[in-house]
Each structure stands twice: as structure tokens, then as C-alpha cells.
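Q: My labmate handed me this sequence with no annotations at all. I'd like to see what the chain might look like in three dimensions before we decide whether it's worth expressing. Could you predict it?
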Amino acid sequence: MLAVSLLGRYLLRSGLQRTDVRRWCVCAAQTDRCPDTPRQADMLRGRGQIKRVLCVAEKNDAAKGISEIMSNGRSQRREGMSKFNKIYEYEYHLFGQNVTVIMTSVSGHLLGLEFKAPFQKWHSCNPVLLFNAEVEKYCPDNMRQIKRTLEKEVRQCQALVIWTDCDREGENIGFEIIDVCKAVKPNLQLFRAKFSEITPNSIRRACETLTEPDANVSDAVDVRQELDLRIGASFTRFQTLRLQKIFPEALANQLISYGSCQFPTLGFVVERFKAIQAFIPETFYKIKVLHNVEDDTVEFSWKRNRLFNHTACLVLYQICMEDPIATVTSVTSKPKSKWRPLPLDTVEMEKLVSRKLRISAKETMKIAEKLYTQGFISYPRTETNIFPATLPLAPLVEQQTHSQVWGTFAQRVLDQPGGPNPRHGKKSDQAHPPIHPTKFANTLQGNEGRVYEFIVRHFLACVSQDALGQETVVDIDIAQEKFSASGLMIIARNYLDVYPYDRWSTKLIPVYEQGSQFQPSAIEMVDGQTNPPQLLTEADLISLMEKHGIGTDATHAEHIETIKSRMYVGLTADQRFLPGELGMGLVEGYNSMGYEMSKPNLRAELEADLKQVSEGRKDKLSVLQHHIQKYKSVFIESVRKAKKLDEALSPYLGAAQEITEAEQQDMEIPLPVRKCPNCGRDMVLKKKREGNSKYLSCVGYPACKTAVWFPDMVLEVSRDDSICPTCRPRPVQMLKFKFRRGTLPPMMPLEFVGCIGGCDETLREVLDLKYLQGGGGGGGGGGVGRGEDPRPPAPRPPRQVPPRAPRSNPQHSLPPPVPSRAPQQWLPPGGGGGGGTDTNSDVIVCNCGQDALLLTVRKEGPNQGRQFYKCNAGSCNFFLWADQPSQQGPPQSRGPPLPQPYTSQPPRPSLGFSHNPGRGRGQEGAAGGLGDQTMCNCNEAAVTRTVQKDGPNKGRMFHTCGKPRDQQCGFFQWADENVPPTGGLSGAFNGGGDGGKGKGRKIMGDAVANKPPAAKKPRTCGICHLPGHTRVTCPQR
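A: Here is what I predict for the chain of 1037 residues:
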């Protein structure tokens, strides 16, 4: 039995096949209905072990009423940990034996749904992430005492009976109670009591027919709750944060909420208002005939009703006036009935009480819930308007005979032939009967008394008889134009005697005989104008919501109250809805985007799917994911077209605040790029406090100070939509980079898309992404600081790097990278020297890519006579002292390369640079070529030049392409590095590296193995790579 219960707990928690497990529990209560299975003996033994049962109702009033019925008023009340939820203890005959029952209650939903902590604050993430953010159920502070009561009481019990309301929400609350109780006692047996009213017969019948909780119904509520949370939070954060900045005076402190039900509800109000505004009245004309008989005047109406053409109507009127004698063509008398009302469902109750009693739907439902828990009426949330044949109506009518107001009518109903005879509707939810009184009350006051009276009168009217009358219709002819008049004589008022909310009055007309003629007292041609539709009343709005499937009978009132409390709509003096300026602007703005979010289609489809989930015809997760993706796509499009929202609101809230591009970007909460390697939270692109450059920062700041600072060579960086297929943990978004001119070799594009997850070796070296190797330190460039304030380090000159293949856009198709030792630096094409024979050897290139202009300082001061370079066109602000080391020259300072991180994924091909192992000859030339001849990437002999520029490399020789500057292939190699041993052919460059040691080295042929090892090179500085000193004493440090 314990194994069964533990399995049941697991399946309940996981949401898988809970019905099968719970069905075993039901067998314990209904052994006579169970099939003869091997488990039956275990179930019988389990039933015998039940000595103490915990019963939980949805509200304290319900728990009190149920316990009074089950205990016959002999229950003992004691306090629970919540002062609002009492505990009632008594003995009851259940499961074929006497057991001790502990009856208590919750107060609605015991658990709430919320985003996990990283997503709860409004500025914690981009609102679009809320569509996929993790959510969790939690117990609110005001429910913790109730939860503790359940945990304490269930420890001594062997069974749990759920007595919550028998609707979707009640079923979901029941599963919340189950989850809390089974966490304490996994082997608890579970039962569900089904009832529609708190009366002795209903409660005892529920005890005799205990069943299992319905997981499908609860799942439908879980889907609805999660979707409402995700949709509401994302849209509300987006429009509130944006519009408060765009309209600071009008909306400074206002919450601008969005809900997938409340917005279509608002849309109905706005649509009616705009229809009234757009209405153009038209003038119409009609003819009426009056006939005075003694003191009565009979008006005959025109069969054509009305014409909109004045001339046509005038012609017909003149024809009638030429021969104004009326001939009676027919006199028809027939019985006429006024139908009694249908049994009362929730929507009809809300509409009728709003119209007849002027009580809002929200207040009506609140009063009805109270009357239900006190046992005066049946369950008020029902879609059924058909009384089941099994429900005895005569005893319910008999209770009302005690009333001094309608008692006589109730007795008439009992005495009528056939007794109570309800009219049947067409709707049934198969759960609850129509709303009806369950006991007589004459002590209720105020609106409670009025609502109760309405329910009683409606019930008595619907089980009574239709009102009967006799209608007489008289048709006359004047010059072949037809007119008619009607009269009514009421024969039996029947239900009208108890139902004052309907009116049917007698209309007397004289006696006319067919074929007789008379002279009309007057024939008139009158005009009029068409009228616009009226603003919606609450009853009209509820009708539209029901027609289009917005919300349920249980939630209509809540959605209407929400748009009122948000000031999206107001009420006129005659209680009609008038849209506010904010409501009008929001609806017009979203409609202008192309997504008619104020229309009911989106939500109506969801409500239909929820119904299918509750019936077990659709899967919970598939419905959830389908609607998340649908609303997410709408949200992304809405953000993209957000300016349409500003434009729509401007006529109502005043001119929109002008915002700069920087402020516009600040309003757009950044999307995540990757997970932080330190704390696992999102890393996003943020703008530095000074300047327009960006850096990558962990959203966990200040708790986590991990950040990636991009060097000054990066002009722009933005998040690309593509995701790296290699890097983990996913997703790692690709980034779009734009580099400064002159900071990268010519073969590298200045704009490309790359990954900073570590798989892109070139980008890792360009940006010096030390954090990928777990390195700390907040050094410059692309270093990551841990444990320090993520502020940009002191700027340093941009470095130039070997052209390893970054990820770039497919349109770039460039030669393979030049092989060299990893710390190699890059000169502009043409080099910095050439033995004085090449005039281009000392050319300085500005950021525009043009030759810089050499000038001399003429102004008096410490720099007078000093030479400097500036942009020839004056457009890029390039400046360089002629006597300072050029940033375009040989190395500034560069640490050794970082090792390639190990990954189990195959190497990713570059998206922009060709990585073609089959190039053969070109790569051989780049690596040294044949014998002692150095070949460039053009497969031609490279030229040797000498660095002329002052600096640490002055006088150093290097190899470069010998072609003219505009045709050079970008090849570069120091003459004193990577010199191949004599003899043998060099192999292709191993671009993949070898654990960080093989990068840039030559892979030699078989002959290399027979050569003696090369002489050991002297130790060089780690900064400038020159011998004779170390990093500590380097003059460039």
C-alpha cells in the first residue's frame, strides 16, 4: 500500500497519469463499483485503515455549513493557525465505518504562480524573456498559516476529501491542497466530493458518491494561470516603462496594465464609442394613419415602414390623400403568449441583476457567493439553464410558501396541473444545476435581500406558466397602400404575478369588421432621423463577452472591474461605459500595428483550447507552448512598432516627449547574449557611462561583477539573432561587430558576425577573451573582471592581430589566414620600410584608410616644430605624433596566445574566411615556400624590407607581398622568425592549432624528422618580444 501511495505521489507531482492512481483510492470508498481485480483486497485493507479523515472546503462558511449538516449540529469547533479558518471535528459514518472527520478550509487559491527571483523585478530582464522564463508555485504570506494548519492536521489522517467548489478553479485549488498534504504524508488516500448546494440531501449524496479529483480540469487552470502571468507581465512592463517616459506628465506614476481578457473587453467599449462617433444620421419619411373612435385613438403603421427618398414618399402620400377612404382588408384574432423565463445561469443572472436592480456584476457575484456558502442558494457559477430530471423541484417551491410576499404564488405553482413545470433551455455544463433557492429566508437585508428575492422570483416564474393573451390585428388599405394596427387583451398573467421585472400590458382597439370602410381622422407624412447605437451597459458588455468567448461566466465581472479600476473606461450618469483617453489610445495604437489585439479572436481561441484541455481532448503542454509562441510573436512585433503606440496616444495625452537615440536604447532592456561563466545568470550588452561603446555585463551585478570590456578598436557591437551551434551552455548568441579602420589587416572585414563563447579563435584573440580560460583580472581589452566593479579599464591603443578566421557574414570570401607565430603583429600593407627603395614604406594610414597628412606644429609652445600626422580629409579625427611609435607599426604589447579550450564539438568552419586545406601552394608560400625562398599568398616571391619607423622594431627585417599597394595580398612575416630548416618541403599551415602550441608553426614533410634540432632562441620579453630584458623591466610597460 505504501508503494502504491508513493507511486501516486510521484505521478501526482509530475502530472502524469494521475487519474489511474487516484482511481485506486476511489475504489476504497466505492468497493461495490470496483471490478474484481487483484488490487481489490489491498484497497479493502486500505479502507479499513482509515480512522481519521481530513476534509477541506474552499471557504470557512462552506466548511461550517457542511460540518453542521454532517454532524447534525454536534461538531466541536477549535482554532486553526489562521484566525479566519476554523477547524470542526466530529464523527461520521464513512467508508462503511465510523471515522473522525476534521473539517477545515482554505481561502481561495492556496498557492500563487510567480516568476523565479531573477525575473521578478521590472528592470531585471527584457520583457520578451518572460515568455520563456522559469515560473514556480509559491505560498503567499497571507496563506502560510492555512498551509501550516493543513500540514499539521494531515499528519494524523489517513485520507483527504476535497470539498472545494465543483468548477475549474475549485478543482485547481483542490490539487493545491493535495500537493501540500502529500508533501507531508505521501501515502495519503485522496477523494473528491461533488455537490452543487450545501443542503442535507446534497451533502449526504456527495459523501456516498466520492470520486477522484479531475486532473484535466485542474490542468486547464494551470495553463490559463501561466499564460495570463506571462502575457500580462510582459506587455504590462513594456507599455508601462515606455509610456511613462514618453508621456511623463500624464502617466508619471500610472500602471498601464495589459491582459488578454481585459483588452478585448476594453475593445468592445471603444468599438461602440467609435461607431457612435462615426455615425452619420439619415433623414427618413413615413406615412401614418390615425383613427379616432370615441375616446380612443388608433394609429395604423405603414407596411413599408419608412423611405429615405423624400420625393417618393411625397408621391405616395399625395395618392393616399386623393382618395382617403380606408378599407378593412382583414381582422385576425389569435392567442399570444409571453414566455416565462428560462432557468437562471450565471451570465443571465449578472445581466438581469445589472439591468433590473442596478447592481454591478462584481457585486452580484460577491453577494451570490455569500448566499451560497450560507446555504440559501445553489452554486452560483453555472452554465446550465436546464433543470435535471433528478432534481425534485416541489420541495424547493414548498419552502417558499412561508413567504408573506410570494407564498401565495408558490402555493399556486404547487396546485397547478403537473406541479412545477420549468421551461428548458439548451445549455448544460454537466456539473451544476441552474441557480435556485435552497431554503427560505426572510431576514436578509440590503442588496443581499434584493438579490435573494430576485433569485426566488425568477425560480418561481420559470416553474410557473406562460402569460396568456389574445391579439387582434387589423389591416387596412388606402389607395393600395397597406397599413395595420394591433390590440392585445391579457387573459392570464400567470408568471407575471410574481415576476415584476417583465411587463406586458393590455392595448385596446375598437372592433373592426372585414370589408368595412371608414374615413381616417388624419393621414400624415412625418419625418425622422436614424439614431446612433447607445453606449454599452454592463449587461450589453457581458453579452458580447459571452458571444465572443472572452473569459468565462465566472470571470466576466473581474475583467469588467479591471478596466474600470485602471481608468481605461468610465461610467456615464445612466451607467453606460465610456472609454477614457488612455483606453482609446491603447486600442488605436495596437490596432494600427496590424494586430487587432482589442479584438476577441486571440483570447477566444485560447478559451476554446482550455475547454478541450479540461475535457481531456488536448494536451496541457502543447496548448501552453502554442499560445506562448503566438503571443510572443505578437509582442515582438508590438515592440518593433512601438512608435505607433506613441502616435496613437499623442492626441489624447499631449505631445510625446522627444527622446534621444541613447534614451531610446536605454528604454529597450537588452536581451541576453550568454550565461555568465561565474554565476550562471544572463550576460547582456550595456552601454558605458561615457561614450557610446558597450560592454558585456552580468545581470547579477553587483553580486556578480563579471564583465567583458571590448577594446577601442570595436566601434559597434550588437546582438545577432543567430545562435552558436557549438558553445555551451546554450544559447550563446552571435554578436555583430564593427571595427575601426586601420586596426585590422586588410584581409579582415571591418564588419562581421562572430561568437564570443570561445569557439571562434580569431575573435577570442582579437578581444582577448581571458574569461573563457577561467582567467581573472580586470585588465584592459576584452578581459573580465571578477570581484571588482565592472567599470571600463583605462583605454589603451587598439592592437592589430593575425587574421585568423572570425565568424563573418557569408558575403565575405577572403584568403586563408597567414601562418605566423601567435604573438605576431601586423603592419599596414607595404610594410614600414623597404631599404629606402619603396616610397610607400613609411606611409601612415588614417582611420579612413587614406594616407595621412604630415604637418608641423607652428603654434608657440612646448610642441612647436614637432611633426604629426592627421587625416587628409579631416573626417576621422586621426592624430599621431611623428616621433611616437605608430599604432599601425609593429607590436605595441601583446601577451602570449591563450590555449584553445577543449571542446567535444567538432571545429566550426568560419562563416567569412575561407579555411581551405586544399590550397596547397598558396599556403606553402605563406609558410616559407620552397627551399630558402619565401612565398607570399599570391604564390609569388615575397620581398624583404626593413622597419624604418622609430620604435622597438626599428631596423628589423620582414617579408611582405611585392605587388603594388592596392594589389597586395596582405602577407607579412618577420625575417628572423619561423625560418624553416634547410631543405625539405614545408607542409600546409595547421590552422586548427595543437592545444595552443601548434598555432602558427610549420608542419614539415618527412625530411624534417631527419634534420638536427634548431638552435634554442634566446629568451625574449613577454611584452615587446625583444631579447635582453624581461617583462618587469620592459620600457614599454
